[in-house]
């Protein structure tokens, strides 16, 4: 188990800057998830840690040792790729032990590691099968097992579940989380899937255009996004953004402001110093908007999405469409008017010019 420390990392490929002055510290035993859209640099960062891509500037330390220019074989890492990359003519056992055999690991030690990992990943009945006789989920477990038998200091995962169907992804997510709890190993995981990030990570690193936008626990990143990009990237449906302005209200105590949003005024405690009629963008997640027959706001129904255990209700609010979560089964007619209230303690306010959290 090792920590990873990245300082001022810069990578340019084909004349294009992919990563710019990136700093990141990964603690021992942490499950760190790199989250972001395609092209944001998350896989490039992972490959740089693995030694598959050279850095143009900066340094990469693994376990306290400078590994910036070290060969991948010297970095004590185990890596799981998006594709299974299994040898089709080899059995599961041979696929998992291939790297150990090449490195000259004693046969008895190989057998011990294979037995341990196979039990951990429920692969014992499959050890003598070849990849063609395995399902997609089983093949991915073999690929994970091949990395685990290395007993590396750091395990790297490059979107390992993206090729699987929804049910298999859900199943393997649970297995990976349990695996981390049992091994307490350092894991760095790349994904564009926010569900994977929220369920697996001890900390999430949200990236955009080669730069880190926010680092924090899943709860912090979700509840207190630092900018509009982070706020909009996490959540399904995404956070609602509503333009408005802040007014200091004399009738409230000094730490309370009023957010005026079209015809709706939200009165809530907000710790911020604002000028008169300061422009803001208010962000509110769909689950923090509640049906209320006495609510101060109203909108007309434009779409209803049944999701099984809840509904996603889309409303027209003064020309802008917003979404809300309805947990109780109800019937809504298109075009009908519903009243609602916003949980003022759960909103986020952003500066529309800088897009940063206020």
Automatic annotation (TrEMBL):
InterPro entries xref list? AAA+_ATPase (IPR003593), ABC_transporter-like_ATP-bd (IPR003439), ABC_transporter-like_CS (IPR017871), ABC_transpr_MalK-like (IPR015855), ABC_transpr_MalK/UgpC-like (IPR047641), Mo/tungstate-bd_C_term_dom (IPR008995), NA-bd_OB-fold (IPR012340), P-loop_NTPase (IPR027417)
**Listed name of the protein:** ABC transporter ATP-binding protein
Could you state a single Gene Ontology molecular function term?
A: ATP binding
Query: Is S-adenosyl-L-methionine a UniProt keyword of this protein?
Result: no
The GO annotation for biological process reads: carbohydrate transport
Q: Which UniProt keywords apply?
A: ATP-binding, Cell membrane, Membrane, Nucleotide-binding, Transport
Which cellular components does GO assign to this protein?
ATP-binding cassette (ABC) transporter complex, substrate-binding subunit-containing
Mind telling me which residue stretches traverse the membrane in this protein?
none
Task: Name the PROSITE patterns on file.
Answer: ABC_TRANSPORTER_1, ABC_TRANSPORTER_2
- Pfam families, per database record: ABC_tran (PF00005), TOBE_2 (PF08402)
Coiled-coil region list = none
**The ABC transporter domain, residue ranges:** 4-234
Q: Does the keyword Transmembrane helix apply?
A: no
């Amino acid at each position: 188990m090792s920590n990873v420390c990245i300082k001022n990392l810069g990578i340019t490929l084909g004349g294009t800057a992919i990563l710019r002055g990136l700093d990141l510290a990964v603690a021992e035993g942490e499950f760190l998830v790199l989250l972001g859209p395609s092209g944001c640099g998350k896989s490039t960062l992972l490959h740089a840690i693995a030694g598959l891509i050279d850095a143009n500037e900066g340094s990469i330390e693994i376990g306290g040792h400078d590994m910036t220019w070290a060969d991948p074989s010297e970095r004590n890492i185990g890596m799981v790729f998006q594709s299974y990359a299994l040898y089709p003519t080899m059995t599961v056992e041979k696929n998992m032990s291939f790297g150990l055999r090449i490195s000259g690991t004693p046969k008895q030690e190989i057998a011990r590691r294979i037995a341990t990992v196979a039990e951990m990943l429920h692969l014992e009945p499959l050890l003598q099968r070849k990849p063609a006789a395995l399902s997609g989920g089983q093949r991915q477990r073999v690929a994970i097992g091949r990395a685990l038998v290395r007993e590396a200091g750091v395990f790297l995962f490059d979107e390992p579940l993206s090729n699987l169907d929804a049910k298999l992804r859900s199943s393997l997510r649970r297995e990976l989380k349990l695996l981390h709890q049992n091994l307490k190993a350092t894991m760095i995981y790349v994904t564009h899937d926010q569900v994977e990030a929220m369920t697996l990570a001890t900390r999430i690193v949200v990236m955009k255009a080669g730069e880190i936008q926010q680092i924090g626990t899943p709860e912090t990143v979700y509840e207190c996004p630092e900018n509009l990009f982070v706020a909009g990237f996490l959540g399904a449906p995404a956070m609602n953004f509503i333009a408005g302005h802040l007014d200091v209200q004399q009738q409230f105590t000094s730490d309370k402001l009023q957010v005026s949003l079209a015809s709706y005024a939200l009165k809530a405690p907000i710790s911020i110093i604002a000028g008169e009629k300061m422009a803001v963008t208010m962000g509110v997640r769909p689950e923090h908007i509640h049906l209320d027959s006495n609510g101060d706001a109203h909108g007309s129904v434009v779409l209803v999405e049944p999701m099984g255990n809840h509904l996603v209700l889309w409303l027209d609010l003064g020309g802008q469409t917003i979404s809300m979560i309805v947990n109780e089964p109800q019937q809504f007619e298109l075009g009908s008017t519903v009243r609602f209230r916003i949980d003022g303690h759960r909103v986020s306010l952003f500066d529309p010019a800088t897009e940063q959290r206020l």
